[in-house]
C-alpha cells in the first residue's frame, strides 16, 4: 500500500516538473527582454538537453518521411524505366525483322533483275505450311488472280524450291523438292553427267541422285543443276552438292547423296517462274552455298 502511494506521488511530482518546464520554455521563448533572470537561466540550462533530444527526434522523423517519399519516387521511376526498356526491346526486335526482310527481298530482287531476259518471275510470301510434314508443301499469298498455274517452277536466290501443285484465286500450294513425290531431272555441272534427283527417307541426306551409270564421273563436292529435260523445270537451276557416292545394291548404277542449297526450313519468300524465255546454254540460276 505504501509503495502505491509513493509511486503516485512520484508520478504527480514528475507531471508537475514537466508542467513547470513547459511553462519555462514558453516563458523564455516568448520574452522580449534582452537579459534573463537567474531563474530563467537555470530553467533554460535545465531543459536544453531535453530540447536537443526533441529536435533530434523531430529531425529523425522528418528524415524517415523524406526517405519513404524518395523510395516511392525511385520505385515509380524504376517501373517507368522497365517499361521503356520493354518498349525498346520490342522496337529493336521489330527493326531487326525489317532489316532481315529487306535483305531477303533485295536478294530476290537481285535474282529477278539478273535474269529478266530469261525468266519472268513473280514474288510471293509464304503464309502456310503442311502441318503433317514441315518439308512437304508450303502455301504462298499469290494464286490464279496473279497468273499462277499448275506445275510452275518455284525458286529463290539459293536455287530450286519446288513446283506449284494446287491453286486458288489468291493462294498457291507448292510441293517442295524434299517431298517424296517430287523428282527432277539433274546433271553434274562440271561434266554434265545426267541423273534424277529425288527425296530420301533419311534426315542425314535429304536428297539423292539416282540412275547414274556405274562408270559416270561424279565425285564428292560436285554441284548439281537442273538438266532441263522434261516440261517443268528450266535448265540451270542449282539444286545442291554431292556429299557421298555409293554403288546401288544391284551393282549396275551409282547413286549420290545430296545436300540441297535451299534452306527449306527458313523459307519466307519465293519466286514463281511465270514464263521461261529463251535460255542460254550455260545459264545458272541460284547462288548455291553461301
What ranges have pLDDT less than 50 throughout 5 or more consecutive residues?
Answer: none
CATH superfamily of the largest domain: Rod shape-determining protein MreC, domain 1
Oligomer: single chain
Approximately how much beta-strand content do the residues carry? 25-35%
Alpha-carbon Rg, integer: 44 Å
CATH topology of the largest domain: Thrombin, subunit H
How many β strands by DSSP?
Answer: 12
The computed structural class is alpha+beta
Q: Estimate the helix proportion, in percent.
A: 25-40%
List the domain count as a whole number: 2
Q: Assign an overall shape.
A: rod-shaped
Number of helices: 2
| Mean pLDDT across all amino acids | 80
Order of helices and strands: HHEEEEEEEEEEEE
Determine the N-to-C terminus distance.
104 Å
Strand order of the largest sheet: 1-2-5-4-3-12
Question: Biggest β-sheet: count, sense, barrel?
Answer: 6 strands, antiparallel, barrel
**CATH first level of the largest domain:** Mainly Beta
Description:
This protein has 290 residues and is of the alpha+beta class. It folds into 2 domains: 76 residues; 157 residues, Beta Barrel (Thrombin, subunit H), CATH 2.40.10. It contains 2 helices and 12 strands; from the N terminus they run ααββββββββββββ. It has a 6-stranded antiparallel barrel with strand order 1-2-5-4-3-12. A hairpin with a 2-residue loop joins strand 3 and strand 4. Helix 1 crosses helix 2. The protein is rod-shaped, with a radius of gyration of 44 Å.
Compact summary:
The protein has helices at residues 2-30, 38-114, and strands at 119-129, 137-140, 153-156, 159-167, 172-176, 183-188, 194-199, 207-213, 223-226, 238-247, 253-260, 269-276. The protein has 290 residues and is an alpha+beta fold.
Amino acid at each position: 500500500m505504501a509503495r502505491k502511494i509513493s509511486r503516485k506521488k512520484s508520478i504527480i511530482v514528475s507531471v508537475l516538473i514537466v508542467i513547470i518546464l513547459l511553462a519555462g520554455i514558453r516563458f523564455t521563448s516568448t520574452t522580449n527582454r534582452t537579459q534573463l533572470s537567474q531563474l530563467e537561466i537555470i530553467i533554460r540550462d535545465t531543459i536544453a538537453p531535453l530540447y536537443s533530444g526533441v529536435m533530434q527526434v523531430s529531425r529523425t522523423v522528418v528524415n524517415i518521411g523524406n526517405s519513404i517519399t524518395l523510395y516511392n519516387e525511385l520505385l515509380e521511376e524504376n517501373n517507368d524505366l522497365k517499361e521503356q526498356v520493354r518498349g525498346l526491346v520490342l522496337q529493336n526486335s521489330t527493326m531487326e525483322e525489317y532489316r532481315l526482310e529487306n535483305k531477303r527481298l533485295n536478294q530476290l530482287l537481285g535474282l529477278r533483275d539478273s535474269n529478266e531476259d530469261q525468266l519472268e518471275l513473280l514474288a510471293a510470301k509464304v503464309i502456310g505450311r503442311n502441318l503433317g510434314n514441315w518439308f512437304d508443301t508450303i502455301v504462298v499469298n499469290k494464286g490464279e488472280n496473279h497468273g499462277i498455274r499448275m506445275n510452275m517452277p518455284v525458286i529463290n536466290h539459293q536455287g530450286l524450291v519446288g513446283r506449284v501443285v494446287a491453286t486458288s484465286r489468291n493462294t498457291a500450294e507448292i510441293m517442295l523438292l524434299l517431298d517424296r513425290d517430287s523428282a527432277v531431272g539433274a546433271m553434274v555441272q562440271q561434266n554434265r553427267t545426267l541423273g534424277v534427283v529425288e527425296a530420301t527417307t533419311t534426315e542425314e541426306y535429304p536428297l539423292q541422285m539416282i540412275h547414274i551409270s556405274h562408270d559416270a564421273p561424279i565425285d564428292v563436292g560436285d554441284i548439281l543443276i537442273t538438266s532441263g529435260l522434261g516440261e517443268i523445270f528450266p535448265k540451270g537451276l542449282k539444286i545442291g552438292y554431292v556429299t557421298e557416292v555409293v554403288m546401288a545394291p544391284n551393282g549396275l548404277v551409282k547413286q549420290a547423296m545430296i545436300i540441297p542449297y535451299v534452306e527449306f526450313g527458313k523459307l519466307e519468300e519465293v519466286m514463281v517462274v511465270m514464263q521461261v524465255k529463251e535460255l542460254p546454254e550455260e545459264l545458272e540460276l541460284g547462288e548455291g552455298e553461301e
